[in-house]
Predict the 3D structure of the following.
Amino acid sequence: MAPTTATETVEKPPKTEAPPKLSDMEGSIDQITFEQILEMDDEDDRDFSHGIVFGFFDQAESTFEKMEKALKEKKLAELSSLGHFLKGSSATLGLSKVKDACEKIQHYGARKDETGTNDEPDENVCLVNIEKTLLECKKDYKEVEDFLRRYYGESPSS
Amino acid sequence: MSLKHRLLNLSMHDPAQTVNMPLIVTPPEDNDMVLSELKGGANPLQRTNDTAQCDPSLCRIYRYTPMPTIVVDANLCIVEVSDSHLTLSGQSRAALLNTCICDITPHMIPVSDITSLYGAIRAAISTKEIQLIQDIYLKDSKSHFQLQVTPIFQDRTLIYIVFEARKMTRGRSEASDHHTHVNETYKILVDTVKDYAIFMLDTRGNITTWNPGAAILKGYSASEIIGKHFSVFYSPEDRLNHKPEKGLMMCLRDGRMEDEGWRYRQDESRFWANVMIRPIYEFGRHVGFVKVTRDLTERKAAEARLITAFEESSRLKTDFLANMSHEIRTPMNGMLLALSMLTDTGLNGEQLEYASIIEDSTSLLLQIINDILDYSKLSSGSFSLTSDIVSVDSVVSAVVRNCKSCLKTGVELSSSMPSDFPQAVKGDPLRYRQVLQNLVGNAVKFTERGYVKVSTSFAIDAEDPTLFNISTEVADSGVGVPESALNTLFTPFTRFADSTRRRYQGTGLGLSICKSLVELMNGSVGYRPNLDGGGSIFWFTVKMARTDILAPSKPLAGFLAESSENLIKKLRDIAPRKNILLVEDNLVNHMVMLKLLQSFGFERVDAAWDGAEAVRLVKQTPLSYNLVLMDISMPVLDGLEATSQIRSMKIDVPIIALTGNALKGDAETYLAKGMNDYLGKPVHRNHLLQALWKWLGT
């Protein structure tokens, strides 16, 4: 039987590998911060962190929708505040890439450059920047979402 | 009037006369010679009559010649005029005969003006050669003429002068002598120049010639512009200020005039022009101006581009610095955090020593990065001051306390302040502290033995009695400042002290940041050598407002060295008795924070989801909360406004800001708005622990 199992493992790549390791996501998830959340779980289950993480998924998806709507309506201030909002929760979970992107959206929305240091008077430049960053943000989000779903033993959403 | 007198009266300098530049071919010679020759002749009139009587039939030549002709005798008196001339001038023979040619209207002769007529007559008599006056324009018939002046001598005696007018079919005469040849050469040269507008003006400033360069540059064709005044190239304001006329006057006075400024094309577009005007004189008489105009728009635009490029690169540098420091600060903070956790894991002596070295270096790096961030903010002008109550005394003691740890052995650090120094003033405590910290830090760093003394004094501002001028002096007995470095002391990125040996670390930004900060606080900063001990004295003054309110008694953020293990134990002891209000709109953050607080043993945590709810809860039970954890940006009412409202109820519950904005300036705004402390997001367990203990445990 042993040889068969070995073949199967090779054919079915990481998907079934359970559970993925946090350190694989070094660039996207700040390990220390996320572990802090995990530490809050009770010894025998992961109910607390699971609730938080999946709560975040809901929040992120609805925020992205709101951002897209605001982008269409060219509401910069609204975009800035949405960026700030999602930045807060992504930071708490240690989702550093998502957090950074949200921060950029917050700055662009406030008519500033990426770092919030200098003013950017051109509204259209800000909107274009946000559109670009939002795409990246959603990509980064998708990546951590897939990872976290696998981490909590779910199959990744398509 | 005799010819002699008439000639003597000829005026060559008649500034009021405008001349269309007649080309009098042969220059006049010495008057006296002409006159003496005239004197030498026998009775000229007699001779004239004799000749006239010789063959009267020949008189018909001049009467019926088709070329308009006037014949005058030696006294310039008209003795014959042709029918063709009468047709041209429209006069009767009777009106002209026996009249002096000088007394009839010049254009009837025809000649442009009496001066050129005199000139030609003089030249003809003195040289005994035919003279040609060219370019005579008659407005009535709109045609060009040239006048041939032929002196008729019998031996050395002038008997007649014949004036023959020839109508020119082309605009210009075709004289073929050397002069014209030279003129033609120049004309071709001028006509070949395309990059310069070269044209001539008459004495009044009307345009008389026009080259292709001028046509290209100014957009007018020659026929459109010739005869117009050159002020059409100037702006209406310039015209109102009589700039064109003044330019010509200046040109006549100085012999040349050069100017740079906007000029206008026919299509009213403008260009930046370099204009050069020179007067032209002919036989000593002013006949007009030559004007050369160059288009410098390109050069000016290039200059502007250079300036923009320079500003852009300077801005890029600032942005780069800001971005880099921002990017570096995040991992640095992570390192510091991990380090502080590492030191809590029960290290042995050697490990602790290494850890403390890492901590020192990291703190220094962080300080440098913060300096660069400050610098880039200051140089981009996006730096703001906050207004708060300052206790100068406590700031000075805090700085002194802080710097004591860096003192070299055998150096004494002390501070002095007059006993009547105001307890509290209004200003930016953190900026004041930053400057003082920098100066004292420098003094401590550069002093190997002796002392560092901080002395503070105050005076009421002479102009505004509501302001204090606070002067602070930091004197040391250290290495001092070499004379060569005095000029660049406050210039960014310059360091003088042992930079090659890397004995003292730093960015060379400290003093320049101090200078900018002090200037923001309407003060100044300076240096003088310390005569007592050979070190330095750095001083600075700032303006701060008087106030009656006292500064908050609790000192701001300090580094707590206590291990987190110990802290948790101590906090767990007190936590069940404490009531905390958590204000946070983000569900995820809210849940995490609640959980964290629970893990510390807090049992009574009230939740508010926006600022308004928080204010309502505090209002309901003003004394029940021991601490408020307050998010900054929230819907309905933000954290800052909520804090202001809570403070306005005279409730001094400690409020800790939870902020995602990690920038230094933001945090200081929160403190200025009445918050007591702040935690950056993500809130780290240890930080929260320390902040909670700081505000609840002591």
